[in-house]
Design brief:
It is a single chain. The chain is 20% helix and 26% strand. The protein has two domains: 47 residues, Signal recognition particle alu RNA binding heterodimer, srp9/1 (2-Layer Sandwich); 50 residues, 2,3-Dihydroxybiphenyl 1,2-Dioxygenase, domain 1, CATH 3.10.180.10. It contains two helices and seven strands; from the N terminus they run βαβββαβββ. The protein is of the alpha/beta class and 115 residues long. A hairpin with a 5-residue loop joins β6 and β7. It is globular, with a radius of gyration of 14 Å. The longest helix is centred in the N-terminal third of the chain and has 12 residues. The strands form two sheets. The protein has a four-stranded mixed sheet with strand order 4-7-6-5, with helices on one face. A three-stranded mixed sheet has the order 1-3-2, with helices on one face.
């Protein structure tokens, strides 16, 4: 479950990014996307007091609670696709085979190519 100020919009972002369909009953208060065969899903819920995460967190600030990792076959193409959908590359990139991205609500996620 990811909190967001606009959960349906964020669900649509991840739906396009991953090619997973929206789940049933998606609306402005909450939504989900369904993974292969409907076995896995990611849910999104409205949080009116949502504050974008900061990554990496400054000293003494709340650290990131989680992030999603997605293995890709072509890292450059996956990054380009994510940017077209509204993601932005994080300023700090710690590894050559990983690109830390920020979704439209600011949640960090990683695209990586297994070496």
């Amino acid at each position: 479950m990811l909190d967001a100020p606009e959960p349906l919009s964020l669900a649509r972002f991840y739906s396009e990014l991953l090619g997973w369909p929206l789940g049933p009953n998606a609306d402005e208060e909450g939504a989900s996307i369904l993974g292969p065969e409907g076995v896995t899903y990611i849910a999104f819920q409205r949080e009116s007091r949502y504050v974008r995460p900061v990554w990496p967190a400054p000293e003494g600030a709340q650290q990131m609670q989680l992030h999603l990792d997605f293995e890709v076959s072509d890292l450059a193409a996956a990054v380009e696709h994510a940017i077209e959908l509204g993601a932005t590359p994080a300023q700090f990139q710690p590894q050559d085979n990983v690109r830390v991205m920020l979704d439209p609500a600011g949640h960090p996620f990683c695209l990586y190519k297994d070496e």
